């Protein structure tokens, strides 16, 4: 345990010391004699970001509800804190008991974003734990990982001991049970991994060998023993009403990204946008009932004192009983003036009346994500919305008094042309015109349109997984072109850093050979790569040169349907033939209807029964 006196000295020298002190409301404190297994939930970014992550709160409470298990939290220390820690040789420690991470049984990382991978390495290094799993010994904790990026685990294959693919609630408890047995039998590290390798959703990279062809593509992946599974099937919670959900959340002392109750209303998505990984890997759709959500909301508000409830999902307006849910939540919390927020709304189905009712107290800006500037390209990506949808929604919103609108687009989407780029400008200008077309006496507020264009990153398990990403020069040319043509005082145009997106594309579709690039980049000084002011692109380029790995092979190369992809050994339920079919339909500009309208035969119902689609 780190001495409080030592900590106090360095905390006086850093920004936001409350990031490191713990002791917040609703944390768990357990007696030493009651603890058999210590688990550190590790978020590879700063406290302010990590404490807004719902998965952290769920697994923290789930594990701590179990007798004998103590789950604590750890976050990436910000640059100033790390400097102080390294100066006086303080290892990375948990927030609850200030225990060095090396003394835990498990360190579980959540993988939300590829650009946080070097923070994982930095956290291991600060804990005096070997970066590569092959260099860890019997005394070291197991490094495990899950979350959306774990659906292509290979870039971290040399680093992580084992992965949990899918929704971890039940699987993590099975692992803890096995570990307890391991301790009793004094099993070795390898024997423990052998004992869990056949639990559904578990992937142990060191148990597999990958063979490559002369052209550097993968020939095959071979399990080293016959009893190791050749396919790793994701795990889902079939009935959310019966799945564990927290009734309390930790309340931070400092402002975090989201200071509110998060109410997860459903998992999955029926839409089928062809660029969207979450829309594919989280299928099928599973909803919580209104009654269940009301009960959870009451408990969470009572235990946290928060003044806002956020309805969480991939597409909130697709919840089958949204109006009833919103009305009942508003009735329940009217007297306490608890606010409601509905992020992730689609502009084709949301009700402005409903939003206006919710936002009577505080009218925030509206956010729309047309993704592409032209109808042709929106059909290619299967967005399923029209320009008319957007314009009519904006017209109605302006009539009701809104004056702030955010529009999100992507550039570099497959088949994109100059006309599609011009469509981004045209759409923003049409929204502007719609505001000024109103009668002057009904115009409210000062119009502000923020138009953002991120760089398309092809992701594993999407219909666009075979497509090359635009080169850096192409992205920059497109960004400059848009900056040149969008010239209006009412429209602010933002772009995303192309170099960051390039690296994201490398690791989103990388194989296990990019593990060594990560390690080299970290040793060169890379960390907090998702933070613009910390990103060191030159060090990454050096790391690729030092390891002889060509990043363009992963980011900018078109794959054939016959190529073995690094993530092919994972079974998400959605079939490869469906993804191929969707990619071909995109080339023809054909739309695939929402799953609620007709079944597109994605395959999810074959092995993952229990959803709504």
UniProtKB/TrEMBL annotation:
GO function terms (MF aspect): catalytic activity; iron-sulfur cluster binding
Q: Which SUPFAM superfamilies match?
A: Radical SAM enzymes
Pfam families noted in UniProt:
Radical_SAM, Radical_SAM_N2
Query: Known SMART domains for this protein?
Result: Elp3 (SM00729)
Q: Which InterPro entries match?
A: CHP03960_rSAM, Elp3/MiaA/NifB-like_rSAM, Radical_SAM_N2, rSAM, rSAM_horseshoe, rSAM_sf
- PROSITE patterns per record: RADICAL_SAM
Domain Radical SAM core: where?
255-492
Q: What is the protein name given in its UniProt record?
A: TIGR03960 family B12-binding radical SAM protein
- List the source organism: Senegalia massiliensis
- Highest lineage ranks of the organism? Bacteria, Bacillati, Bacillota, Clostridia, Eubacteriales
